[in-house]
Amino acid sequence: MKIKASSADTLIIYFSNKIEEQTSLKVMRAYNNLLDLHLEGIFEIIPSYTSIYIHYDILFYDFLLLKQILEEKLDLNSALENNSKLINIDVYYGLDVGFDLEQISKKTAISIDEIIKIHSSKIYNVYAIGFLPGFAYLGNVSKKIDISRLDTPRKMVPKGSVAIANNQTAVYPQDSPGGWNIIGKTTYNFFNKDLKNLSNIKVGDKIKFNPISKDEFLKQKGVI
To answer: What is the dihedral sign for C-alpha 216, 218, 220, 223?
Structure first.
């Protein structure tokens, strides 16, 4: 664990430079421990892939003081409460919504059916939430379909689009610009304005994508 200043009123706790499940567990253990400490003068605590970002009140702490408190009080060996959940998400992987399926197939020399099978056969860890409220970074995608972002991002990606970028996958929680490869679409709503973190999922949860037909997708949308 390394603690470094990010700005005059922020710091970052680093746990590793590797994105993997073991690191994610360390991050969540420390994150839960930080919440339990109820430290006064802390504005924001945000977990990420391999680190935790802390925004603090400079009237309470300077960097060295808060660093010392964290080093003394953080218990990295504490039990991690298993309150994560497995979320099953139906995805329609049709070419009419999976805009980049054909291009991925060409680049990887893997059939579209196999790409769908590979993507939907894994259970993904929720490593971080950011970019947009409810945008969850999920890993790790199979190396067989590990593909870089688009050279030119789209000006608008439809809400619910399921995407791949390098070894990550994600669902766009709302219409927005984006540069990930789109492979399908879901009606599952990641964004929830009524929740504090604005998301129906949290870091530490697990996601399983399940292929469905176009008719099933349209029924879920309420079109038929």
So the answer is: negative
Q: Which residue has the tokens 């009606």?
A: 187
Pick from 199, 202, 217, 149: nearest CA to 177 = 149
Q: Is 21 helix (H, G, I), strand (E, B) or coil?
A: helix
Neighbours of 53 (CB within 10 A): 15
How many Å apart are CA 168 and CA 183, to the nearest integer? 13
HEC letters along 90-153: EEECCCCCCCCHHHHHHHHCCCHHHHHHHHHCCEEEEEEECCCCCCEEEECCCHHHCECCCCCC
Identity of the residue numbered 201: I
Tokens matching residue 89: 């998400």
Dihedral sign computed on CA atoms, order 159, 105, 153, 45: positive
**Could you tell me the pLDDT band of residue 83, with boundaries at 50, 70 and 90?**
low
75, two tokens: 């218990």
Token pair, residue 18, equals 């590797």
User: Please, what's the largest Cα pairwise distance for the chain?
Assistant: 61
Burial 37-49 (b: 16+ CB within 10 A, else e): eebeebeebbbbb
pTM above 0.85, yes or no: no
The conformation of residue 166, written as its DSSP 8-state character, comes to: B
Q: What are phi and psi of 127, to 5 degrees?
A: -90, -30
Which uninterrupted H or E stretch holds 102?
helix 101-108
Is residue 211 scored above 80 in pLDDT? yes
